[in-house]
């Protein structure tokens, strides 16, 4: 590295003008930095909105108060003439509140980088000074303590450093504290110019902070009436690691949600079903950091952007040990992970309890041996529980009927509840007729459970079928506003969609999480798609395009590895090859993307004659970069040869800026 000698600036032509310009910008910068401090403390102070350059320099809206801040920078002591016009304006604003023209109680403060002069200082102690006006300067907090305002700084450097310290407290941010402060200062200036009507709302600010975790995965809502299963796993045990196994619909997640509701242990939930395996450990680290407010800073280094997922988990494990907290992690769909991945996560978090939920799979025995545990099975509801479920649906049932229901459904709660509802709606409450109808079709290809699911689905209203079919496209929970946006392509009203969501969740076809998101039960996803006509199937493809846009839009505020993976999958399904090519060469994709599906889509695009030469060329280029990143150098030359052929045949200059293979 060589040093560059900078030429000195020429002498300024008008030194007095330079002084005025510097003073003006110093004042605005100081004001913006104090506004940044207000933004960074919104959560702690209960501030709903920060308003820039409206009636006053900065205004804070809280539940019961509207605080008006005038911010002053001076070289010498603050004197009355500096603030006389400010006090007059405060009086006008106070009158608006007194007359009821403005909501909330008004409070006022003058923020000054210098202390008041002797005369003004004496005035502050008199009874004639307005009780709702505070003057705050560096080192003075008592007069404004009731306002919960950030400390006042003496100069720009101190103000900047103070903001950096506040930014350092933001949990799991993706930006360095200094970069975050500079970003927020620019935003403060933008709001001052009129952006969003001068107003920064709390929800907006959370997005500006660029925290790696904003929206956590929550436990699905526990059933209103929970009924234990036969030989159900105990809720409280001394084992640190537990593996609970049962087929889809067997009630594993309901059991875990019930535990979370009743247990005194702190707990968090993570479904890894549709998550790229490479992203599981880092995603879990982010969940833990945000959920339990663990810091991911070590000697001033932001580990969130530099460490691997396992390193993050080990660092969190040390904080768990120091805090002596009793934490349980519920990992759902563990059968989707390799044994080595599960083992490395558990070993990294040695002071944390684990509940692993899984469907039966071929690697179960290996995981049991590696972790020295024994799987606990879900065996379904008892005769009494089945009788209670049918009775609540209004269907009379005897012990013999209940035993036959167990034979058909295995006692799995989802299928029992579906069967009870189907009996009430399609078989006039006649349990014997329902059982006979299902048993008589046992020789066909579909299982009894598939027959039940299909019949239940057919009984849905058209609106509920539409919502179910659209939800089947998403492997992650969707929020109500996203579902409404998705159903708009079917011209379905918001009221009808809301009613359909309630219908699906009440029937158990979909589950709602504590955060308000909704996900179709896995068992119904294939049924929902298979039920669509050819015309509806074409509409589903249009829905995939819309869903891809919705998910992409949600990534800054609701993004997680599952949503990112779904977005990549939807881009592939909807033929957005150019988007995939651009993403596939980014480093972050290899940490959180669905590599297998994207590689197949790009590989197919490279050989697809109906695509433009440019798209095919860059598809090969992405594959070359990918192979080089993975060290598979032998496979690169044939692809480079194909790129040369396409470039030569097209007669264009698309080869410029393409990937160049290093000579070895």
Oligomer: single chain
Write the CATH fold name of the largest domain: Trna Endonuclease, Chain: A, domain 1
Shape: globular
Mean pLDDT: 82
Which CATH architecture of the largest domain? Answer: 3-Layer(aba) Sandwich
What is the total number of structural domains?
Answer: 5
Describe the model:
The chain has 29 helices and 15 strands. It is an alpha/beta fold. The protein folds into 5 domains: 16-208, Trna Endonuclease, Chain: A, domain 1, CATH 3.40.1350; 241-377, Rossmann fold; 383-442, no CATH class; 460-574, Arc Repressor Mutant, subunit A, CATH 1.10.10; 577-664. The strands form 4 sheets. The protein has a 6-stranded mixed beta sheet, with helices on both faces. Helix 3 links the parallel strand 3 (65-72) and strand 4. The chain is globular.
Q: How would you concisely characterize the structure shown here?
A:
This protein is an alpha/beta fold.
Fold blueprint:
Blueprint (H helix, E strand, L loop, with lengths): L14 H26 L1 H4 L1 E6 L5 E5 L2 E8 L7 H19 L6 E8 L5 H7 L8 E4 L19 H13 L8 H16 L6 E3 H7 L32 E5 L6 H11 L3 E6 L8 H13 L4 E2 L2 E2 H4 L2 H15 L3 E6 L6 H10 L4 E6 L5 H8 L4 E2 L5 H10 L6 H11 L3 H14 L4 H9 L8 H11 L3 H10 L8 H8 L6 H14 L2 E3 L5 E3 L1 H9 L3 H25 L2 H13 L3 H8 L4 H4 L2 H12 L6 H17 L6 H15 L14
């Amino acid at each position: 590295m060589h040093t560059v000698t900078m030429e000195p600036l020429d002498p300024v032509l008008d030194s007095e003008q330079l002084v005025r310009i510097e003073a003006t910008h110093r004042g605005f910068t100081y004001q913006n930095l104090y506004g940044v401090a207000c933004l960074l403390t919104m959560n702690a102070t209960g501030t709903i909105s920060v308003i820039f350059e409206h009636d006053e320099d900065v205004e804070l809206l809280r539940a019961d108060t509207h605080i008006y801040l005038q911010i002053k920078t001076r070289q010498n002591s603050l004197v009355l003439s500096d603030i006389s016009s400010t006090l007059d304006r405060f009086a006008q604003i106070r009158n608006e509140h007194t007359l009821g023209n403005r909501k909330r109680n008004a409070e006022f403060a003058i923020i000054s980088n210098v202390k008041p002069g002797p005369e003004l200082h004496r005035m502050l102690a008199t009874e004639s000074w307005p009780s709702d006006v505070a003057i705050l300067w560096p080192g003075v907090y008592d007069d404004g303590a009731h306002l919960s305002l950030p400390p006042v700084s003496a100069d720009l450097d101190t103000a900047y450093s103070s903001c950096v310290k506040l930014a350092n407290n933001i949990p799991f941010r993706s930006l360095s504290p200094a970069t975050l402060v500079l970003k927020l200062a620019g935003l403060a200036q933008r709001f001052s110019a009129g952006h969003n009507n001068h107003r920064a709302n709390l929800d907006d600010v959370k997005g500006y902070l660029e925290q790696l975790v904003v929206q956590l995965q929550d436990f699905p809502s526990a059933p209103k009436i929970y009924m234990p299963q036969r030989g159900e796993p105990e809720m409280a045990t001394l084992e640190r690691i537990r593996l609970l196994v049962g087929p889809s619909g067997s009630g594993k997640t309901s059991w875990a949600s019930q535990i979370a509701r009743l247990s005194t242990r702190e707990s968090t939930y993570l479904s890894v079903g549709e998550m790229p395996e490479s992203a599981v450990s880092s995603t879990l680290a982010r969940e833990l950091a945000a959920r339990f407010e663990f810091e991911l800073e070590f000697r001033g280094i932001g580990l969130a952007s530099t460490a691997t997922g396992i390193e993050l988990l080990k660092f969190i494990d040390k904080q768990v040990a120091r805090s002596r907290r009793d934490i349980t992690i519920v990992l759902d769909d563990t059968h989707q992970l390799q044994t080595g991945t599960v083992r490395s996560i558990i070993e990294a978090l040695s002071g944390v309890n684990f509940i692993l939920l899984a469907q039966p799979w071929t690697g179960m025995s290996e995981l049991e041996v590696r972790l020295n545990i024994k799987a606990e099975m879900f065996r379904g509801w008892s005769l009494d529980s089945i009788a209670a479920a049918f009775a609540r649906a209004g269907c009379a049932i005897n012990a013999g009927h209940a035993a036959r229901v167990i034979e058909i459904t295995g006692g799995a709660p989802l299928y029992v509840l579906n069967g009870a509802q189907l009996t009430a709606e399609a078989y006039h409450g006649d349990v014997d007729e329902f059982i006979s109808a299902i048993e008589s079709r046992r020789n066909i290809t579909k299982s009894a459970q598939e027959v039940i699911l299909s019949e239940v689905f057919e009984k849905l209203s058209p609106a509920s079928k539409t919502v179910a079919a659209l939800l089947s496209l998403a492997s992650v929970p969707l929020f109500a506003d996203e579902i409404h946006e998705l159903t708009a392509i079917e011209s379905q009203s918001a009221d009808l969609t809301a009613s359909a969501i309630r219908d699906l969740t009440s029937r158990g076809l979909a589950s709602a999480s504590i955060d308000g998101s909704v996900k179709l039960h896995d068992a119904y996803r294939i049924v929902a798609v298979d039920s669509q006509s050819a015309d509806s199937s074409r509409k589903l493809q249009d829905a995939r395009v819309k869903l891809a846009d919705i998910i992409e839009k949600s990534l800054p505020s609701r993004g997680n590895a599952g949503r990112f993976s779904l977005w990549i999958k939807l881009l592939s399904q909807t033929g957005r090859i150019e988007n995939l090519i651009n993403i596939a060469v980014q480093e972050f994709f290899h940490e959180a993307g669905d590599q297998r599906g994207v590689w197949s889509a790009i590989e197919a695009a490279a050989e697809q004659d109906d695509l433009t030469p440019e798209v095919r060329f860059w598809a090969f280029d992405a594959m070359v970069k990918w192979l080089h990143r993975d060290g598979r150098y032998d496979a690169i030359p044939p692809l480079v040869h194909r790129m040369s052929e396409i470039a030569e045949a097209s007669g264009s200059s698309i080869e410029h800026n393409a990937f160049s293979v290093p000579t070895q």
